[in-house]
Amino acid sequence: MAKLKFTQVRTYYSSYFGHDIAPLAAKHGLQLHLGVYMTYELWYQNQVDSAVKAVKAHPKTIKAILVGNENVAPYGRYAADDIVAKMKVIRDRIKNETGLSVPVGTVQRVAEWLLDDPKIKKLAANSDILGVNLYPFFDNSFDPTKPAAVLDSVWSVLTQRYPLSKLRITETGWPSGGSPPSFAPKNVPNLANAKLYYKTFLAWMASKGRQGDFWYNMYDSRPDEKLPADVEYHFGLLTHKRDVKGVLKLDTSVQNDATLDRQFNGPNVLLVNSTLNLTIGTNQSVAASETIVFPPSSRASDGDNTPSMNQAYDNDEILLPSSEQF
């Protein structure tokens, strides 16, 4: 990731199968929007403890704490007040135990943020960051001749309703394979359209002076993973074997290549997949003992019916560089 000029990572978990994420990121110079996965199970407390510990041990690594992902009612299982309460507990613990003030927010679908609902407004008022998951691919109104139209129209409403300083696009992307959604059959998932939307999003960020938004995701899902739709396997900028797709057309064998620099002067990226293997420089990789093997991944929301953490979905994101570097 460092070789490809990624600088920040968004995760859905602060600790995964007993592995704290922050020490790995800190070792390799990556900053985190660290997730706290919400669940009614006992291991939720481990998520909170790991997040607080991360701020204590690696304060320069933690850019923000994001509590929950696509889980607020009516779409999700959690009342807005529940998320507000959990954010307050984490915010207070960080302040009391470290003396630091770290932004604490939540990530929800754009559909929920656009609801005219006092509960959603309360959630927004109590969040330092409003993470917005926005996919024109799943919007039947998407027009390939005006690829930024959905982004522009939604962003206009969001910025009228919420403070611009709080808003962050925490997921967006376009798959390079699979089948179109039944409710948006004209949105074809292929490499050409993925490249079109990637370039569109970079240009959109630049036009808005944006920095710190996230792309979904770094790697395709593995073929042996069990996902709800075939399109879910193909959102990566890289294949599941870590080959760069034609979306980017990068020569990853050349470190500090000028073309590579230009290509990645855009958003940050979401890492959601099987093996997190941080690579630094040209040949130096994370030791085998530091490689974390994740179970099947999906864009599942927090609070899914997962009877144990071993069956919970993995969702980690990577941040693309800022639009100021265009």
Automatic annotation (TrEMBL):
Keywords: Carbohydrate metabolism, Cell membrane, Cell wall biogenesis/degradation, Glycoprotein, Hydrolase, Membrane, Polysaccharide degradation. Its main location: membrane. Residues 298-313 have a biased composition (Polar residues). Gene3D superfamilies: Glycosidases. Glucanases play a role in cell expansion during growth, in cell-cell fusion during mating, and in spore release during sporulation. This enzyme may be involved in beta-glucan degradation. Active on laminarin and lichenan. PANTHER family: GLUCAN 1,3-BETA-GLUCOSIDASE, GLUCAN ENDO-1,3-BETA-GLUCOSIDASE BTGC. This is glucan endo-1,3-beta-D-glucosidase. It comes from Aphanomyces euteiches.
